[in-house]
Amino acid sequence: MSLAAALLLAGAAAPQVAPPTEVPRVTFDSRSLRIDGNPTLIWSSEFHPFRLPSPDLWRDILQKMKASGFNTVAIYIDWGFHSPKKGVYDFTGIRDVERVLTMAQEEGLYVITRAGPYVNAELSRGGFPGWLVNQPGKARTDDPEYLAAVDEWLDRINPIIARHQLGRGGSVILHQIENELALTTPAQGRYMQHLYDKARADGITVPMFHNDQGRNGYWVPKSSDVLLTVPGPQELYAFDGYPGGVCGVDNKPTRGAPAPDWGLYGPGGARGGASASPKTPGFIAEFGGGWFDYWGSNGMYPCNAIQRGSGYQRVFYGTNIANGIAIQSIYMGYGGTSWGWLPAPVVYTSYDYGSAIDEARNLRPKALELKQIGQFLQAVPDLARLEKAPPVTITGSDAVQVYHDRNPDTDARLLFVAPKPSNATGDARFTITADLPDGRYSFANELHGRDAKLLVAGVNLERQRLVYSTSELQTTIRHGAEDVALFYGRAGESGETVLRYTSAPKVTVVEGEVVNAFDAAKGDLRLTYTHNGLARVRIEGGGRAPLLLLIGDVAAGQSFFRQEALLERGPALVRRATVRGNTLDLTGDTETAAPLEVWGRVRAVRWNGQAVPVTHSVSGSLIARRPLPAPQALALPDLMAATWRYAEGSPEARTNFDDASWTVAGTARNVATIRPPTGQPNLGADSYGFHDGDVWYRGRFTGSPQAQTATIHYGAGGAGMLQLFLDGQLVGQHELAGGLPRPITTGVAEFALPREAQAPGEHVLAAMVRVNGHNWDLDVDDAHKEPRGLISVSLARPGGDSFAVPIAWKIQGRASGEELKDVARGPSNNGGLYGERMGWTLPGFPDGAWPSLKLADAKPYTGTSWYRTVFDLSVPKGEDATIGLQIGDPKTPRSPGRYRMLIFVNGWNMGQFVANVGPQRVFPIPDGILHHRGRNTLALAVTSDGAPGNAIEPVKLVTLHHVRGGVAVTDVAAPAYRDLYPTP
Ligand code: IPT
């Protein structure tokens, strides 16, 4: 109890003292964030835990980010993922936000939280929960009903974030309210104020921001003196940017435009960061590190990884750094999987994004380049605060530009060398002459292709003084009495590094060819060399601590990890380094038998818990006497040899199907953005609580001469579809095209009805709508309220009156709608297929009475048919793998056949394959969802018109990632059949 409180309790008058104030750990000035007062450059990348439904693997991603040089992770939190029904929330299992925040802290990463209410993120409804589409008030405004819903979410998520702020039990340093709110009306202003006030009231004390869609100046903080629009209540201004071009339709990288100057070198750049908000640090909340891919593409992710890959990263992220952008987050660091019904209509299941960590959790080559950039940014704290320095002189080429910056406190220099324009890819050889802190110097350099260099000069590195280097600095450590500095350059290029001493030091070239000369007048030791492999030079004396200088080519540099101020090289990944006494405990991954070399003040080394015999090298490192072990060969079961069980799964189409328990459709309130003609029933699935996945309708009508054609208006999202049956027979199927920029999400299907519709008596129309997501609400136009399922159905004769025949409709989607049966797998796992309602997706469903077959003998079936099998896996302990399901011929994005398939692995809906749309044929299944050491149940729901050729293609298990190492993964707990369907 505080003294003041004690006095109050005692009934005494409280003395006039200021309330105890907590010193905020995260502050900022116009140039940078400060953590505990220290200017800190924030180098972040984005991860969506909900796109990796195996919580133990969150740690794998976080460790890979940390090992790739990031100091921060940005996470979106998806409201809809946690809330199946108004007032109902879940934060357990794969929805345990606390767990990912705790892991991030344990792994030494800061966190930027982005908790909606709206997130976009290529999610169905942009992350809004399903039930929100039934609200009449406009979303993302100050509509009271909307705000009440928002508060329901914030009441729960804000305190979780508050508990995990830096200094309060976690490492959250920044918090985002809203996402790219491009409308800046007073109603939006009040909404933003509400979000801000609510976060503060709920205990979030770190600086808050909003991400402007571009550098427009929307919602600049009130503190700013450049108020372009309605000011935002938050402290920091941030914006998003996706420059650099996208892959062409031929699936080849394009040249794109030059890197934009979004800071010091941009318009009005003289003032502190030149952001649209000069009093706050340059802050890019999302900077394109890839791009999403869409239904019907040719499979662009590999190309997207190159478009925003090696070279792009150096040019574009480097331009940002040189522009004084002191907070930068790459979208995405790991894209993951939009499993189940998470995807918005614009994307298919894979959200690989072409990011540095691919969907199967491999580090792409571009991750190694990121590691070099990230290690560099952390090695030179001076880079957190930059201003322009006087221009340098460039001779010998017009095709190059140099951004020259300085830190106002230390005078350390950054020389960012880029092609001019920066999207040029030629060859340039040139000389730079610059007035640097240690004198005026001229030095040669070169650039080839899409590349750029971040050089530093006049900077103190550990106990050394770097005058300049034409090689790039990667990292430094203090290794006891000695410092170690790692520089790198392009293989075959010459380089020079100049260090300052008070007297001539002793130079020993331990390995490689390095020439040195000492200029006694200046005190400059000049080392010249060609980048080739890894050179090692020991420099002693000269008035400084000894230095081991490592000079590598790019590949050699990329072999280094820096964990816990130690250097490690050799294995594919070093996850963690822990020093206990004289022992260094390393964890990490090997893809093949790998060498290991470490610089650390230890005598013994352990790798993944096993002692590694080591020898001492002349360059002060420890070298493993034997290679670290490789993973073993992984044998996967052959699914084509397996026995499958088969069932037909569209009984709803039959006349005599019992729909007594279904909901009568017609009179529910309709707030959708598209409505049926006046007088027609409201058939929209959301109005009846069915928000995700497939929905079935049955409509009874009396046979009539009018019933000649059916005109069906429906909403189904990208590459969605409709099947219409009359009295048990397929009338026809209609599919929506995928594709950018906006997929077709609603359609009108016209079918000629068979003559029997005119016969007297009762007839049954049955319709199945495959709902591929709700639109996002990026433009604040309630687009997420576009209806799904049937919108209107008109039976008429050609030229006759529409809606000539009345139809009585019933509807059924996911079993029990918003009341989740399967809480663990959650709201985005299941729709309303018959097999889903009956539990056919689940492990332990008794399918013994179903006929058995080999998959090669599967025949086309009209409607949805189910194939189930079980298989065992035995991935060796201590090995990490990602196993995927491949369908048909991986070389072609589309099949000749026309069918689609939902993939249920142990009850989890891990994606949708659409044969005739594509492009995805390989579906990675995360460890934990797939039981790597045990039994697995695979259930495939194939939907087709039954025409010849439209049957399931061969399926195969494939290894997409495999290393020795990894993190420990336990299978994700989720109910089996008997848990959800107990026998009475
Ligand atoms: C921006 C969103 O903020 C983010 O959620 C995601 O959708 C991303 O882009 C694209 O993947 S939207 C902006 C590009 C208009």
From TrEMBL:
<feature type="signal peptide">
    <location>
        <begin position="1"/>
        <end position="18"/>
    </location>
</feature>
<dbReference type="GO" id="GO:0004565">
    <property type="term" value="F:beta-galactosidase activity"/>
</dbReference>
<dbReference type="InterPro" id="IPR018954">
    <property type="entry name" value="Betagal_dom2"/>
</dbReference>
<keyword id="KW-0732">Signal</keyword>
<dbReference type="InterPro" id="IPR037110">
    <property type="entry name" value="Betagal_dom2_sf"/>
</dbReference>
<protein>
    <recommendedName>
        <fullName>beta-galactosidase</fullName>
        <ecNumber>3.2.1.23</ecNumber>
    </recommendedName>
</protein>
<dbReference type="GO" id="GO:0005975">
    <property type="term" value="P:carbohydrate metabolic process"/>
</dbReference>
<comment type="similarity">
    <text>Belongs to the glycosyl hydrolase 35 family.</text>
</comment>
<dbReference type="InterPro" id="IPR017853">
    <property type="entry name" value="GH"/>
</dbReference>
<dbReference type="Pfam" id="PF13363">
    <property type="entry name" value="BetaGal_dom3"/>
</dbReference>
<dbReference type="InterPro" id="IPR031330">
    <property type="entry name" value="Gly_Hdrlase_35_cat"/>
</dbReference>
<keyword id="KW-0378">Hydrolase</keyword>
<keyword id="KW-0326">Glycosidase</keyword>
<dbReference type="InterPro" id="IPR008979">
    <property type="entry name" value="Galactose-bd-like_sf"/>
</dbReference>
<dbReference type="Pfam" id="PF01301">
    <property type="entry name" value="Glyco_hydro_35"/>
</dbReference>
<dbReference type="InterPro" id="IPR025972">
    <property type="entry name" value="BetaGal_dom3"/>
</dbReference>
<dbReference type="Pfam" id="PF10435">
    <property type="entry name" value="BetaGal_dom2"/>
</dbReference>
<feature type="domain" description="Beta-galactosidase">
    <location>
        <begin position="385"/>
        <end position="560"/>
    </location>
</feature>
<dbReference type="InterPro" id="IPR036833">
    <property type="entry name" value="BetaGal_dom3_sf"/>
</dbReference>
<dbReference type="Pfam" id="PF13364">
    <property type="entry name" value="BetaGal_ABD2"/>
</dbReference>
<keyword id="KW-0325">Glycoprotein</keyword>
<dbReference type="InterPro" id="IPR025300">
    <property type="entry name" value="BetaGal_jelly_roll_dom"/>
</dbReference>
<dbReference type="InterPro" id="IPR001944">
    <property type="entry name" value="Glycoside_Hdrlase_35"/>
</dbReference>
